[in-house]
Automatic annotation (TrEMBL):
InterPro entries from the UniProt entry: ChsH2_C (IPR002878), ChsH2_Znr (IPR022002), NA-bd_OB-fold (IPR012340), Thioester_dehydratase-like (IPR052513)
SUPFAM superfamilies named among the record's database cross-references: Nucleic acid-binding proteins
Protein name listed in UniProt: Zn-ribbon domain-containing OB-fold protein
Lineage: Bacteria, Bacillati, Actinomycetota, Actinomycetes, Kitasatosporales
TM annotation in the entry: none
Organism of provenance: Streptomyces spectabilis
Domain annotation ChsH2 C-terminal OB-fold: ranges: 61-126
Gene3D superfamilies: 6.10.30.10
Segments forming domain ChsH2 rubredoxin-like zinc ribbon: 22-59
Length: 140
């Protein structure tokens, strides 16, 4: 809940499967999923229990290096859902992780005029709630 009692829209649902991911995030580590099927071996994000490329269920957790490049972004000036309403303007972004997966996130600590397609980013974490950190990206 936000300070004024309205429900928040930014908190993920943590279930038995994604618990590993969120526990790592709280420690400052971004996890991705890596397929171990012969001939595939691709990484993906967000975490799924099977590989979205070949449907194999032989998929494991792997720490990401936390490096990415900016694919595209949109500066959000209006969002009525808490807590985003208190955070505008913010930079909603899609980034390409060094390991391959494309990820929806937010770019922080970067003025809008400095945003460039392909710019180098590194993961940072924002504490969204007690014990819950969400990955964002900053220049670096
Ligand atoms: Zn696969």
């Amino acid at each position: 809940m936000t300070g004024d009692g309205r429900p928040r829209s930014d908190l993920p649902e943590v279930d038995a499967f994604t618990r590993t991911y969120w526990d790592a995030a709280a420690e400052g580590l971004l996890l991705i999923r890596r397929c171990r099927a012969p001939g595939c071996g691709r990484a993906h994000h967000y975490p799924r229990e099977f590989c979205p490329h070949c449907w194999s269920e032989d998929v494991t957790w792997e720490p990401s290096r936390g490096r990415a490049t900016l694919y595209t972004w949109s500066v959000v000036h209006r969002n009525d859902l808490p807590p985003f309403d208190a955070r505008v303007p913010y930079v909603a972004a899609v980034v390409d992780l060094a390991e391959g997966p494309r990820m929806m996130t937010e770019v922080v600590r970067c003025p809008e005029r400095d945003l460039r397609i392909g710019m180098e980013l590194r993961v940072a974490f924002r504490e969204a709630a007690e014990g819950l950190a969400v990955p964002v990206f900053e220049p670096g």
